[in-house]
Automatic annotation (TrEMBL):
Primary localization class, coarse: membrane
One Pfam family matching this protein: SusD-like_3
Protein name: RagB/SusD family nutrient uptake outer membrane protein
Residue stretches spanning the membrane: none
Residue ranges annotated for the RagB/SusD domain, each copy included: 304-500
Length: 506
């Protein structure tokens, strides 16, 4: 009967087409043109919001791109922190053995440039609007320039020289152009200009804001622009500028550490005083798949999760037992598979009957065992947070004058929140404090998109990752300068041969 109905329907469709040959052209009821778009304040806000949405992914219900999952494959999976037991693209990255055909590398590149394209389009069109006030226009443009700076910062961290597109390319697009990548210094210059503009325009928060009708936490703010600019100066080793800007963020007096590390990452804690700039989600409206990717395998509470992005046991074991952050892992549990999941007592040990020695350990950072056990979750992802400000200022101060009392105190604020063993200034040199800072950044900021950039900035990417690989019996694979940057994605190289991967791992 079902087959018959389908055949009847097909015949009816064919008959309809045969009787209406002159009416096959589709009727278009609406389309965006230069005459009917970017006319009102609501149009401008919609364009601005669409750029924020690009931080998450292509569509509601499929939000696992860029800053809400896949970006971590490049920033953490390729270091001593992250581990993935799956084969294919993530396995390559986890083993620090990738090539230009890696799908995760290509997808991150694509999604970042989509944000840039949306931002450039919004900047170009909003700048030409005459129906909004100067204050509104400046606000919207500052937000777009801040978001574009995040994207270019991530691009240059990962690929170094990249193609530099701005709103000028919207006015006179050349879709066949095979543009050469711009040096990192040129991209930095654009970001610095954009962020200085954003700092002068953006409010410290959106309470009682005259442009937005609600307290829109999650939007770009003065403090966020200041700190992003400080991070660019850190990468340039412009220590004094970084120290000055982080001090300005602290002096705003609106940020503070959340009382507990565990509480900071709970799904219910969407926004707090530690957040400077975060990607927000609502499990019921536009949830992400962080819980799916980070949750533990065969867990009795968080069921049907993938443990796709996990942490190395080597990194987990580096925490002191007194450190509250060490409690943020699924180290042992009785799985729904009837096995006890736990860490092996030694490398290569054979598990007895009823036991599964896990190759890596799942973190609770985005897999809250007390949160909602749903397919889509509402976890926030902190792109910029206050603990990073304290650690960044300590880094800059150490490079300027060694382990001062202030610099060590800033790190101890972060340690103290988690009851970790505090540093003693008298026991430190500039070099040993530098090492302690890098280690602290790993403990505090793992899977927050910082690890690979940190290791490179400290000049320790090859040293630390190769030492980790050696400890676990793997091959030392990191070679500098070859692995300083990822290869340009093969599909992009095929389009634009000026994206030359010579000298990079291919």
């Amino acid at each position: 009967m079902k087959k018959y109905n389908i055949l009847v329907l097909a015949a009816a469709v064919l008959a309809q087409f045969s009787c209406n040959k002159t009416n096959l052209e589709p009727k278009i009821y609406s389309s965006l043109t230069s005459q009917n778009a970017f006319l009102t304040k609501s149009d401008a806000i919609a364009a601005v919001n669409s750029v924020y949405a690009r931080l998450k992914g292509p569509a509601v219900g499929d939000n696992f791109d860029y800053w809400t999952v896949r970006h971590f494959a490049l920033t953490d999976l390729t270091t001593d922190v992250g581990h993935c037991s799956y084969a294919g693209d993530p396995g390559q990255l986890s083993q620090v053995q990738w090539n230009s055909a890696n799908g995760l590398i290509a997808e991150d590149y694509r999604q970042i440039y989509k944000l840039i394209a949306n931002a450039n389009n919004a900047i170009y069109n909003i700048a030409a609007m005459s129906s909004i006030s100067a204050a509104e226009k400046n606000q919207f443009l500052a937000e777009m320039k801040f978001l574009r700076a995040i994207a270019y910062s991530d691009l240059t961290d990962s690929w170094g020289p990249v193609i530099l597109n701005t709103e000028k390319d919207v006015a006179n697009p050349d879709y066949k152009a095979q543009t050469k990548p711009s040096p990192v210094a040129d991209v930095d210059a654009l970001m610095i200009t954009d962020l200085e503009n954003a700092i002068s325009v953006l409010p410290t928060d959106y309470t009682k804001n005259s442009i937005y009708s609600t307290n829109d936490v999650g939007r770009a703010t003065k403090g966020a622009a200041m700190f992003l600019l400080a991070k660019i100066y850190l990468r340039e080793h412009a220590w004094q500028k970084a120290a000055d800007l982080t001090k300005q963020v602290i002096d705003l007096g609106i940020y503070q550490l959340y009382p507990s590390y565990e509480g900071l990452f709970k799904e219910s804690n969407t926004w707090c005083s530690e957040n400077i700039f975060s990607v927000l989600s609502d499990a019921n409206v536009n949830g992400t798949e962080l819980l799916n990717h980070f949750g533990p395998l065969s867990h009795p509470v968080l069921t049907d999760r993938w443990q796709y992005y996990a942490v190395t046991w080597d990194f987990y074991n580096s925490y002191g037992d007194e450190d509250d952050r060490k409690k943020m892992f699924f180290t042992q549990y009785d799985g729904v598979d009837g096995l006890t999941h736990k860490q092996a007592p030694s490398l290569g040990a054979t598990a007895p009957d009823g036991v599964l020695y896990m190759p890596d350990v799942a973190t609770m950072k985005y897999a809250d065992p007390n949160g909602a056990n749903t397919y889509y979750d509402g976890h926030s992802v902190d792109v910029l947070r206050y603990a990073d400000v304290l650690l960044s200022r300590a880094e800059a101060l150490n490079e300027l004058g060694g382990p001062t009392v202030e610099a060590v105190g800033l790190v101890n604020q972060v340690k103290g929140r988690s009851h970790a063993k505090l540093l003693v200034a008298a026991n430190l040199t500039q070099a040993t404090f530098r090492d302690a800072l890098l280690q602290e950044r790993g403990w505090e900021l793992y899977y927050e998109g910082k690890r690979r950039a940190d290791l490179k900035r400290f000049g320790k990417y090859d040293v630390i990752v190769n030492a980790y690989l050696k400890r676990i019996g793997a091959t030392n694979t990191v070679q500098l300068p070859r692995d300083e940057y990822f290869p340009y994605p093969l599909n992009q190289v095929n389009i634009n041969p000026n994206l030359n991967n010579a000298g990079r791992q291919q």
